[in-house]
Amino acid sequence: MNFSELFRLSGLLGRFSPDGKCLASCVQYRLVIRDVNTLQILQLYTCLDQIQYIEWSSDSLFVLCAMYKRGIVQVWSLEQPEWHCKIDEGSAGLVASCWSPDGRHILNTTEFHLRITVWSLCTKSVSYIKYPKACQQGIAFTKDGRYMAVAERRDCKDFISLFVCSDWQLLRHFDTETQDLFGIEWAPNGCVLAVWDTCLEYKILLYSLDGRLLSTYRAYEWSLGIKSIAWSPSSQFLAIGSYDEKVRILNHVTWKKITEFEHPVTITNPKTIVYKEVEKSPSVETERLSFPPRALASSLFSTQSKYDISEVPVSLQCVKPVADKANPKIGIGMLAFSPDNCFLATKNDNIPNAVWIWDIQKLKLFVVLEQLCAVQCFQWDPRQPRLAVCTGNGKVYLWSPAGCVSVQVPVEGDFQIHSLSWHSSGDSLALLSKDNFCVCYLEREEA
Where does the sequence pass through the membrane (predicted)? Predict the structure, then answer.
């Protein structure tokens, strides 16, 4: 495992290009494009204000930079650095911006969700979508890029509009049986749209491409409901994380629950492997101390950690949520399927230091990773069942069915990793802190 030097970063804005050749990062109002292999700067662009969001086009030829405070989006071309595009929403303001799947249209959501403006880079034409709903996840594209679903709110009712992305023609428009729609997400095969309600109402609805309601699922009533959802890559399973600290798995044939995964404070099953992170004081040989490089010296004396396998029963550290505050730290806040559909990783927010890994073939808990600090982010390798975890310190953690490893990033100073993202090849990871980032290169043998 090799690490690059640290580079400056703002706002955790570091993204690999979809084709895997470039890495975009932001430093205040500057957009820096680097070669993935050498990390040499290929292009440097200067925006009109501090960048708050970036996104690559699907073909990796353009980068969108959104400056929400100014209501401006700037687009930069990698092929023609002198070409530039500025979209100013003016007094309408800007709260969200994204690419269409073809990488030639930009969708801007104005303040107060008055409308979504579709700007074409090719024809310079403008289209409008009225009444978009102000919710966490209100726009969803099918994986093949053919269709777009938009959540809408008009006359105090929730609706879904389905558009054909090639010409932005309306395909279907239907109302949903939701009190206050919270999010929408397509299955990876693009055949089913999941629509879920606010956390005050446990309800998830599944619609076909022609707007038919296929099924409705409710686990319980009169309590906080759905917190997160995730489709399996094969579209066969829908995992629903709830505030009652359980994950329910629905199957794609009947849309009925096939199992539910509980997240108890105490692990009692002897077949579950519990990896516990433990600190070990650094052992330093005197001959290495003559004049070590500064970065090496800081990593030599930093506290190392490793994983021990704990004997069950194991009691995990639990945090009691504050009952009278909004968004209580309770329930399943993060969940993700591995790319081969074999595993599901979850995090229960009131057991913040643990990652739970479930065997989807056996529908059983397989592994629990118990960290020393609260888990900030985890993400699966796109090519194999290998999970990367960060906990806001200077270490990156990797789990695969073969085992578990904790690696200290050998850099000078305080480098706290708050987010990470895999390269599309699975050969490297971008590790992001508030002020810096580095790239971790994994050897092929480690796979």
Answer: none
